[in-house]
Amino acid sequence: MLRAMLRGLLTHKLRLALSALAVVLGTMFMTGAFVGGDTIAKGFENLFATTQEDLDVQVTAVSDAPRSQTGTSTPTAFVDPSALAKIEAVPGVAKATGLVLVDGARVIGPDGKVVPSTGPPRYGSSWVDDGSGFVVLREGRAPVQPDEVAVNATLADAADLTVGGTVKVLTLRPEPETFQVVGIFGYEGDRDSLGGETNVAFTLPTAQRVMIDAPGKFTQVDVTATPGVTPTALRDDIAAALGPGYAVKTADEVAEEQADAMQGFVGILKNGLAVFAFIGLFTGTFLIFNTFAMLVAQRTRELALYRAFGAGRGQVLRGVLAEAALLGLAASLVGLVLGAGVGYLLTAALEALANTSLPVTGVILRPYVVIATLAVGVGVTVLAALVPALRAGRVAPVAAMRESAAPERPLGPLTIAGAVVLLAGAGLLTLRLTGAVEGQNVLLLGGGTLLAFLGVAMLAPAISRPVTTTLGRPVSFTTPGRLGARNTGRNPIRTAVTAAALMIGVALATGAGVFASSAKAGISDAFRAELTAQLVIAGDLTTGQGGFDPALISRITELPEVTDALALQVDTVRLGQGTAVVAATDVGAAQVIFSLRATAGELRTLRAGEYVIDADTAARDNLTVGSTTTMVPPRGGTFPLRLVGIYETSRLVSGPLISTADAAGFRTRVAQQGYVRVADDAAVPTVKDELTALFAANPEITVADASSVVDQAQQFLDVILAILNVLLGLTIVVAVLGVINTLLLSIYERTREIGLIRAVGMSRGQVARMIGVESVLISVFGALLGLVVGVALGTAIVVALDSSGYLSLTLPWGYLVAVLVLAVVAGVVAAILPAIRAARLDVLRAIAYE
């Protein structure tokens, strides 16, 4: 019997191919996400193992300073020369090399701007050539003078550097320093870099001065063991000799730690792509469900004949499920093969975007990816076919003698079930968004969103007929338009399920659009209402290393047009029993520039040992004016602080503000931002020109209008939204396929009907327009559902997160209109193939079709 059912199924290859395509797309993207991530991870794993080949043990200093939350990676603890001497004295040590290796050497290119980085670090190091052959000096020689450097080939190419030329380098110093390039180096295996990073190699004393501001000290000591001494034994001996305060690891442990650090980025990449692959699969479920539901309806007489010949309900049920499993398996295998190619293209795309070379070769396809892809693809397909399969098993043998066996089912039970599911999803989302339950994001956010979509999809049939009838009225004055609108409402469940696939993509995109618009409006409102400065001075905020000398603020305030100016020097410190991000600044100027208002104590220029804090933090920690605490900055030292003022919570400033005199222990000596208030708006361009000239020597510093800072923040949201829309385009593609599939199967189902209307005078063009009306109405109905759900979801998120003050509920009307227009376009595109199919039906054969 299974062979007979499969033979009947395979007679309609086009509709099977369209159904399988949804599974192919979903499994392809899922496989691609994991293959790309695993390939990158394996490449870096091999790379890190290679870089440690000539290293047995590595020693670094342990710091109790809190991890920076401001972007800077500048270390705060270093290996002392005395520790190096102890290491060299340990039996079994053949060689111990103290060196400096720190992210933060930014080279100024020939265009006068800092050579950008799209992710890989910009190292500043001390030159080390241990004779292992791993570092290869390609041109010139090693640096020996304080003003000499060697650069790796990647940097030489990016900044157009040659041996004998000069280069300006920004480090911890407020101003760049000029060095002579005396060498260009690469790495074993003819690599220009290890992973896309740039590297400026100084002499050891210079690196200690400019990269860590700790003369005589090292960021690490690399140790080579004498023959016969194992790295593990040497590690233990060195650790015993040094005592606490130092981390001693074998080369394998260092490589594993470095690989684990890279796994974080790879994991985020894989998880993000896997989420969108799941969305595509979830959307494809509706397409598969529709396909099998229509196949069962169209094969009613065929299935009834099987029952009449003695087949039981279980046999028919198992037969339909077997068809679904085989379809899912075949589609998943195709998706697996294509996904391996997508994974390779993904690594190539990342290399292109980062303008660098990743240490990857070939494609890594792990067994778990194969198993997961096939299991998910088959599971989703069988799950989607389960309800149609149950329906097929209930076909009575007498149905073989009927003209049709697909009566319309009552919608009441489905509507009630949909309402229950929707309420359950809304309940889960409410628990998380209101903060009633913390964490559990997968269950509450993911599960709530999934149930909400399912609930709306189950409720959609109840409203599909009245909605599509209303939408069809503008075209009902023509016969094709009137018939198309009626055909859309003939089977509300089929119409609703087809539209639900489009609803998911539109809802997610619309929700993201509402959130982005609200965030942009909130940022704009905050700056407009609270910031009185017209000019902003900013360094490289992504690394936290770029900045300017805070002492320059005194020169800025001397300008006759300037009324107030301040610098913000930000770092992460230990404050009391916890950690906090503090800003050293002139609080007197901040009170004016950020419109701060005191709720207790006073706001003024602080003296050493004084600080102020926002009202929310003060209430949370039970702080009052006069409270005392202790600050331990990253570079050490203890700074007692007394609270002298509490300011009303601001959207622009939060947390502790301290005196600039207490910033001596910060990681860097520079201020990351500055704000300037000009008395007369007409003088702003003049002051801007003067400030630009003042910072001309530092190309990493930009002087911009406050409005441009708002625009820059909003552009970031636009980029994120664009990425989301591109990824969510996958669901739109699947949804369009769903409309095509539904219409094609509907044409099969209505072959005699179309033949009859052609016989009574309807032309091929009119038939095509009728199919086009059906397609557009289904697409617009799905888009409207998506807009309603998306706006509701986005509004709920904005309301739940509104306590931040950076969100102001705003509906992107232009975006919503554009979505509707795209829905119409999608409907027209989806109608092309079915319309051609319907128009080309032979009239006589169609009338005789059974």
TrEMBL record:
Protein localization: Cell membrane
Membrane topology, from the record: Multi-pass membrane protein
Keyword line: Cell membrane, Membrane, Transmembrane, Transmembrane helix
Domain MacB-like periplasmic core span(s) in chain numbering: 17-240, 495-694
Keyword Cell membrane: yes
Domain ABC3 transporter permease C-terminal: 275-395, 726-842
InterPro entries: ABC3_permease_C, MacB_PCD, Macrolide_Exporter_MacB
The keyword Transmembrane helix belongs to this UniProt entry's keyword annotation: yes
Residue ranges crossing the lipid bilayer per the database entry: 273-297, 324-347, 367-390, 411-431, 443-463, 496-516, 719-748, 776-801, 813-836
Superkingdom of the organism of origin: Bacteria
Similarity-based family: Belongs to the ABC-4 integral membrane protein family.
Name recorded for this polypeptide: ABC transporter permease
